[in-house]
């Protein structure tokens, strides 16, 4: 590690609700400019972890540092300068335009005496450019396709100008083509120097687009590391209780996860015949 | 941003619709005029500004009409000389001591009701969620009525109990609904119930008064500005001078409620504090208005709906609601003074006109939230 603090540093984070602990002692370090993908079965604590990183859910103990600053020590507004969150399928204001949506991202930088600075203008411009939505700026969000909409939401989060970007299943509602578009965009965001943490259900996509894979189950991190090393049959079995084949992708040898059918009482052949 | 790490070159223009350079000013909100001075910048919403520019002269006209017209009949020159203090002593007194203070109180009561309705409607995301309907006005009414009970002088009750009763009712509604952050629909339903209960208490208190003393309270309890002057006008003005700017600031931030709670919170907004502050403001404003003018019906519903039409669907029209509410109450009070041989209380006028308006709101599409 160099002398500059990592983009995101999480130390022994415990979080949950009264009477029910959901995240048990998570440690996570993501260098600036890298993408970490959090994978795991439903209810494993991924979303609670992400909410704790976004300063939406106060952890019971542990720390979250963004570029050296503790987001739970920082004020709410200051924290909004450090980490931005894109929730899963967020609701947009009715009849909002793309530019209107992206402008919301500038709120932490604005005030009653500073409602629309040149810096706001530049940040919105750059966010639209980065997501390829400049040409859509004047369109109404509700008239765009799902893939275009998700790029616009990403633009909003980018306009917030935070070193850390948190994405909750950014591709879950998208078809394959648009999902790849968004994931490539996530790579571009990291390439521009930001730290990205995304919750991702698709293990194959996570393995291909993340620098670090964080596998969670029952609120604990089972494995953490470069995806090519981390993804193996044992991990898939442990996470999902599934037998799976892990194949190297012909193009780039990224691990492909191909689940095997679960053994059934009647046998696979019997099922197929009916 | 920290140091870039070029793992992959960016590919501009890869996405459909990308690559066209944006002109800077094109990103400024198109419905606003940008004012910049050094490090400061303001966005002036054009449609709201235009609405205010139309409503202000309308208010002046309505107040002028209120000074001039009456069932007693005053000519325009008489009224003017009364206003300037150069006319007959009797006219001067009527205009300066009675009509003008009452009109000013009407303006303030209307503005308070309008802003209160605008805040509660925005908080609940529902146009029906006004202080009339969620029990706040009934709470204020009950407190004032109770203070008049047992008095033998036929007094109206202490106006300053209005805000206290309103706050008590709001606390009751919020507790019953399970927290201020709960869904607007739930607050609405619980509010209707609480409203009915408190209303029954007021009715009970009034029905036990003898006929001689109940008259004043009964008149006030339908909403009346009769006899209101600077004795209540001055403290009301002082309260509004503090509360209205706070309402404007709250309205500015409430625009973020149009986003998801999670998104809003990650933009650095303390939603619980914002909601509690806006609700508190709305309740105290409604309590003040009711304490002074009685529960004038429908103004808190109608003013924000009309202001929204004037200012456009993307705004939280706090200023517009204040001006519209003020115009409605002044117009209704003046109408009540001239229309009948015996003065009609302002609350009766707004009730008569408000019924059809409520139907229109219920049946028409909701432009602000898409909900009924």
UniProtKB/TrEMBL annotation, chain A:
<keyword id="KW-0410">Iron transport</keyword>
<keyword id="KW-0547">Nucleotide-binding</keyword>
<dbReference type="GO" id="GO:0005524">
    <property type="term" value="F:ATP binding"/>
</dbReference>
<keyword id="KW-1003">Cell membrane</keyword>
<dbReference type="GO" id="GO:0016887">
    <property type="term" value="F:ATP hydrolysis activity"/>
</dbReference>
<protein>
    <submittedName>
        <fullName>Iron complex transport system ATP-binding protein</fullName>
    </submittedName>
</protein>
<keyword id="KW-0406">Ion transport</keyword>
<dbReference type="InterPro" id="IPR003593">
    <property type="entry name" value="AAA+_ATPase"/>
</dbReference>
<feature type="domain" description="ABC transporter">
    <location>
        <begin position="8"/>
        <end position="243"/>
    </location>
</feature>
<dbReference type="GO" id="GO:0006826">
    <property type="term" value="P:iron ion transport"/>
</dbReference>
<dbReference type="InterPro" id="IPR003439">
    <property type="entry name" value="ABC_transporter-like_ATP-bd"/>
</dbReference>
<dbReference type="InterPro" id="IPR027417">
    <property type="entry name" value="P-loop_NTPase"/>
</dbReference>
<keyword id="KW-0472">Membrane</keyword>
<keyword id="KW-0408">Iron</keyword>
<dbReference type="Pfam" id="PF00005">
    <property type="entry name" value="ABC_tran"/>
</dbReference>
<keyword id="KW-0813">Transport</keyword>
<dbReference type="GO" id="GO:0005886">
    <property type="term" value="C:plasma membrane"/>
</dbReference>
<dbReference type="InterPro" id="IPR051535">
    <property type="entry name" value="Siderophore_ABC-ATPase"/>
</dbReference>
<keyword id="KW-0067">ATP-binding</keyword>
Automatic annotation (TrEMBL), chain B:
<keyword id="KW-0813">Transport</keyword>
<keyword id="KW-0812">Transmembrane</keyword>
<dbReference type="GO" id="GO:0033214">
    <property type="term" value="P:siderophore-iron import into cell"/>
</dbReference>
<dbReference type="GO" id="GO:0022857">
    <property type="term" value="F:transmembrane transporter activity"/>
</dbReference>
<feature type="transmembrane region" description="Helical">
    <location>
        <begin position="49"/>
        <end position="69"/>
    </location>
</feature>
<feature type="compositionally biased region" description="Pro residues">
    <location>
        <begin position="1"/>
        <end position="10"/>
    </location>
</feature>
<feature type="transmembrane region" description="Helical">
    <location>
        <begin position="159"/>
        <end position="180"/>
    </location>
</feature>
<feature type="transmembrane region" description="Helical">
    <location>
        <begin position="344"/>
        <end position="363"/>
    </location>
</feature>
<protein>
    <submittedName>
        <fullName>Iron complex transport system permease protein</fullName>
    </submittedName>
</protein>
<feature type="transmembrane region" description="Helical">
    <location>
        <begin position="230"/>
        <end position="250"/>
    </location>
</feature>
<keyword id="KW-1133">Transmembrane helix</keyword>
<feature type="region of interest" description="Disordered">
    <location>
        <begin position="1"/>
        <end position="30"/>
    </location>
</feature>
<comment type="similarity">
    <text>Belongs to the binding-protein-dependent transport system permease family. FecCD subfamily.</text>
</comment>
<feature type="transmembrane region" description="Helical">
    <location>
        <begin position="276"/>
        <end position="303"/>
    </location>
</feature>
<dbReference type="InterPro" id="IPR000522">
    <property type="entry name" value="ABC_transptr_permease_BtuC"/>
</dbReference>
<dbReference type="Pfam" id="PF01032">
    <property type="entry name" value="FecCD"/>
</dbReference>
<dbReference type="InterPro" id="IPR037294">
    <property type="entry name" value="ABC_BtuC-like"/>
</dbReference>
<dbReference type="GO" id="GO:0005886">
    <property type="term" value="C:plasma membrane"/>
</dbReference>
<feature type="transmembrane region" description="Helical">
    <location>
        <begin position="315"/>
        <end position="332"/>
    </location>
</feature>
<feature type="transmembrane region" description="Helical">
    <location>
        <begin position="103"/>
        <end position="124"/>
    </location>
</feature>
<keyword id="KW-0472">Membrane</keyword>
<keyword id="KW-1003">Cell membrane</keyword>
């Amino acid at each position: 590690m160099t002398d500059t603090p990592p983009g995101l540093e999480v130390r022994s984070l415990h979080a949950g609700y009264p009477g029910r602990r959901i995240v048990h002692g998570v440690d996570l370090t993501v260098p600036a400019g890298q993408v970490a993908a959090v994978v795991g079965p439903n209810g494993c604590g991924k979303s609670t972890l992400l909410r704790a990183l976004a300063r939406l859910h106060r952890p019971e103990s542990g720390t979250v540092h963004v570029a050296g600053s503790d987001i739970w020590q920082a004020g709410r507004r200051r924290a909004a300068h450090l980490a931005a969150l894109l929730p899963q399928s967020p609701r947009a204001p009715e009849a909002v335009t793309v530019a209107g949506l992206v402008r919301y991202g500038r709120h932490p930088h604005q005030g009653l005496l500073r409602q629309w600075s040149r810096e706001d203008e530049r940040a919105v411009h750059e966010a639209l450019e980065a997501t390829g939505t400049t040409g859509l700026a004047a369109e109404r969000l509700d008239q765009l396709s799902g893939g275009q909409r998700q790029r616009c939401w990403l633009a909003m989060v980018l306009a917030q100008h935070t070193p850390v970007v948190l994405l909750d299943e950014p591709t879950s509602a998208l078809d394959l083509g648009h999902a790849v578009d968004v994931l490539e965009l996530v790579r571009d965001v990291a390439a521009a120097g930001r730290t990205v943490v995304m919750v991702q259900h698709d293990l194959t996509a996570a393995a291909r687009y993340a620098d670090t894979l964080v596998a969670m189950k029952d609120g604990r991190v089972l494995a953490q590391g470069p995806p090519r090393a981390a993804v193996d049959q044992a991990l898939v079995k442990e996470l999902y209780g599934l037998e799976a084949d892990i194949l190297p992708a012909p193009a780039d040898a990224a691990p492909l996860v191909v689940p095997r059918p679960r053994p059934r009482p009647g046998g696979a052949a019997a099922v197929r015949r009916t | 941003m920290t140091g870039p790490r070029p793992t992959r070159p960016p590919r501009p223009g890869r996405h459909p619709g990308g690559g066209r350079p944006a002109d800077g000013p094109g990103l400024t909100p198109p419905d606003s005029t940008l004012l910049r001075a050094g490090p400061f910048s303001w966005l002036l919403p054009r449609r709201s500004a235009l609405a205010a520019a139309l409503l202000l002269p309308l208010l002046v006209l309505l107040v002028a009409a209120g000074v001039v017209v009456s069932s007693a009949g005053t000519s325009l020159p008489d009224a003017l000389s009364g206003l300037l203090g150069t006319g007959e002593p009797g006219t001067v007194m009527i205009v300066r001591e009675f009509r003008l203070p009452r009109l000013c109180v009407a303006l303030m009561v209307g503005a308070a009701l309008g802003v209160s309705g605008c805040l509660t409607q925005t908080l609940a995301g529902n146009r029906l969620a006004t202080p009339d309907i969620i029990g706040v006005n009934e709470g204020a009414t009950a407190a004032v009525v109770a203070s008049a009970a047992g008095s033998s002088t036929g007094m109206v009750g202490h106006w300053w109990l209005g805000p206290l009763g309103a706050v008590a009712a709001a606390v009751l509604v919020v507790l019953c609904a399970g927290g201020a952050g709960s869904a607007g629909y739930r607050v609405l339903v619980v509010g209707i119930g609480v409203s009915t209960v408190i209303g029954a208490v007021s009715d009970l208190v009034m029905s036990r008064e003898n006929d001689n003393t109940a008259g004043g309270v009964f008149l006030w309890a339908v909403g009346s500005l009769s006899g209101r002057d600077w004795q209540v006008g001055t403290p009301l003005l002082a309260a509004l001078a503090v509360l209205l700017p706070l309402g404007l600031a709250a309205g500015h931030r409430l625009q973020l409620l149009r986003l998801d709670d999670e998104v809003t919170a990650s933009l650095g907004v303390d939603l619980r504090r914002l909601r509690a502050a806006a609700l508190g403001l709305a309740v105290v404003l409604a309590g003040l208005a009711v304490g002074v003018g009685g529960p004038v019906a429908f103004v808190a519903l109608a003013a924000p709906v009309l202001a929204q039409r004037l200012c456009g669907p993307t705004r939280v029209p706090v200023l517009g609601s204040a001006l519209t509410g003020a115009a409605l109450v002044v117009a209704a009070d003046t109408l009540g003074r001239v229309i009948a041989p015996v003065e009609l209380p302002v609350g009766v006028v707004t009730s008569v006109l408000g019924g059809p308006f409520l139907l229109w709101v219920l049946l028409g599409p909701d432009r602000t939230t898409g909900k009924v």
